[in-house]
Amino acid sequence: MKRGKVPPLFDRIAIIGFGLIGSSLARAVRKEKLARRIVACDASAAARAVIKKLRLADRVVSGAAEAVAGADLVVLAVPQSANAAVAKAIARHLAPGAIVTDVGSVKEAALRDLTAHLGPAAILVPGHPIAGTENSGPASGFAELFAGRWCVLTPPPGTPASAVAKVRELWRRCGMRVETMDAAHHDRVLAITSHVPHLIAYTIVDTVAELEAHLKAEVIKFAASGFRDFTRVAASDPVMWRDIFLANKEAVLEMMARLYEDIALLQKAIRNGDGKTLHRVFTRSRRIRRSIVQAKQD
Amino acid sequence: MKRGKVPPLFDRIAIIGFGLIGSSLARAVRKEKLARRIVACDASAAARAVIKKLRLADRVVSGAAEAVAGADLVVLAVPQSANAAVAKAIARHLAPGAIVTDVGSVKEAALRDLTAHLGPAAILVPGHPIAGTENSGPASGFAELFAGRWCVLTPPPGTPASAVAKVRELWRRCGMRVETMDAAHHDRVLAITSHVPHLIAYTIVDTVAELEAHLKAEVIKFAASGFRDFTRVAASDPVMWRDIFLANKEAVLEMMARLYEDIALLQKAIRNGDGKTLHRVFTRSRRIRRSIVQAKQD
Question: Are the C-beta atoms of residues A16 and A75 closer than 8 Å to each other?
Fold first, then answer.
């Protein structure tokens, strides 16, 4: 207990994948003294060089199996599509009693990929810290990324309560508000609040990319507020988002179908010059917006 | 020339409609000494009380005809659907040589509505200062609203160059970068950069409004970044946006049709697990985003 009255939550944290989330977590763990040692793992030599240069971890390795040896918490912060391969690589190397968590945006897929390779005896507490910026890579992280945001944990039935409590406390001390819910429910909530908006944002920016050259040049020049908000969303990491859409296919397609019905209604109102319907829908949307502001998510 | 070496651009500016744009313009005109007198006109008694209380104008009236008497510049800053009625009301009261401009988001409709009632002899310089916030009303304005943003002027063929130059100088001194273009071209550019994004934002928020209660509550609670950006856009003034969609019907429906084709492509890629297509489109969108950042519109 050299560090004072509050002991670190973990002895050794292994963070696999040192992008925006992984490197921000490492910074927060250091800052809040949440572990005695941090082991960083990244497959990219360039990323490892940055981690060393910025001294973000106590040890930096290239292989996940090596990284997890002796760790009492393993955090998978790789793109969602890499979860299965990482789980396979670390399965035989986990310390007894080690807790495994991840940070992916789609929880049913995470649970499936981790369980398949780690087996039913592994202690799994999948998580989703809902935080991010449009930047990626180990240099883009910062300890305050998580402050005031939500983190959703989706432990499968039977997970020891003590393990859930420890992961909850990790994120809480990073400044997050933490909730636990069913993985499938999480995925539907995120489909409409995050995944579908990103899909539309990517699409609308792509529609601009295909405009006639003179129109496109002026679109970029005069980009008004609505478009700038869209393009901000569309600047996010392409690999991460590809993986999200592939992993959360069903919920995204369901929410898109609902959205289509509503768009069709507004489009018909425009075509028919039906100002009453437009005004009614826009007024209702403004109310929802106010609920969100009141929920202090802005 | 009591105010120094640079004479005011105008002797008397009449601003009809004192919402966010009208009241911000009045503040900027005062601050930059762009006119000797400002006459404010608003149909709402509540708005007029705010204008008087905040001393935003030299004179405050309720009728447009009264407001324009003796003004050498008349600015229509009412919702787009009110342009025709205001034009009709002021037609016989304009001073000889008075310049008439507006601030609406749809320029073909503005030109049509103004010309119809003011006649071919009127000096029209329709304009669109591309600036705004999610707030409305005379108290929400501020002089710096226009700083660094674009203003597009769409004078019809035959407009005296001196009149265009004066309106250009008005917005330039409010801090805007000013361009002149054809009204129809303006409307297509704005359809894809502003109107369609707003339509989608309103729709997606409306889709949330119709979710099952427990899902809706959590959507509001966990609103992640993409959704918050969407809802910010959807908080804009419902009357203004109703009018925009009714006035720019053709361009909006055309751009929606293009957008649908692109959404269908991505949706099919998700359904088929086609990660290559998703990654290709997302990477292209990121490039466009970077063009916009480089164009300094963020």
Answer: yes
Average pLDDT for chain A: 91
A101: left (phi over 0), alpha (psi -120 to 50) or beta: beta
Cβ-Cβ contacts under 8 Å, B188 against chain A: 215
- Residue A232 has a pLDDT of 73
pLDDT at B42: 97
Average pLDDT over residues B124-150: 93
Residue B213 has pLDDT above 90, yes or no: no
Pull the structure tokens for residue B292. Answer: 């916009």
| Interval B264-275: pLDDT, tens | 999 999 999 999
CB-nearest partner of A194 from B192, B194, B226: B226
Average pLDDT score over chain B = 91
Nearest-by-CA chain A residue for B292: A220
Which stretch of DSSP H or E encloses residue A16? strand A10-16
Amino acid at B170: L
Collect all residues of chain B within an 8 Å Cβ-Cβ radius of residue A190. Answer: 222, 224
Q: Is the pTM of this model over 0.90?
A: no
Q: In chain B, which residue's Cα lies nearest the Cα of A291? A: B220
Q: Can you give the pLDDT at residue A233?
A: 72
Nearest Cα to Cα of residue B225 among A289, A133, A249: A133
Mean pLDDT of A224-251: 82
Q: Is pLDDT larger for residue A63 or for residue A240? A: A63
| Contact state of B227 with A194 under an 8 Å Cβ cutoff | yes
Give the per-residue pLDDT at A1.
Answer: 44
The secondary structure of chain B, three-state, reads: CCCCCCCCCEEEEEEECCCHHHHHHHHHHHHHCCEEEEEEECCCHHHHHHHHHCCCCCEEECCHHHHHCCCCEEEECCCHHHHHHHHHHHHHHCCCCCEEEECCCCHHHHHHHHHHHHCCCCEECCEEECCCCCCCCHHHCCHHHHCCCEEEECCCCCCCHHHHHHHHHHHHHCCCEEEECCHHHHHHHHHHHHHHHHHHHHHHHHHHHCCCHHHHHHHHHHCCHHHHHHHHHCCCCHHHHHHHHHHCHHHHHHHHHHHHHHHHHHHHHHHCCCHHHHHHHHHHHHHHHHHHHHCCCC
ipTM of the complex as predicted: 0.83
- pLDDT at residue B1 above 50? no
- pLDDT single digits (tens) A283-292: 988 888 777 7
Most A CBs within 10 A among B107, B260, B263, hence the mutation to make, goes to: B263
- Ordered by where they begin, the domains of chain B are 10-181 (3.40.50.720), 186-294 (1.10.3660.10)
CB contact under 8 A, B256 and A273: no
Give me the mean pLDDT over the A20-44 stretch. 97
CB pairs under 8 A between A and B: 297
Query: Do A203 and B286 count as a contact with CB atoms less than 8 A apart?
Result: no
Cα four-point dihedral sign B178, B182, B187, B189: negative
| Nearest Cβ partner for A263 among B203, B243, B249 | B203
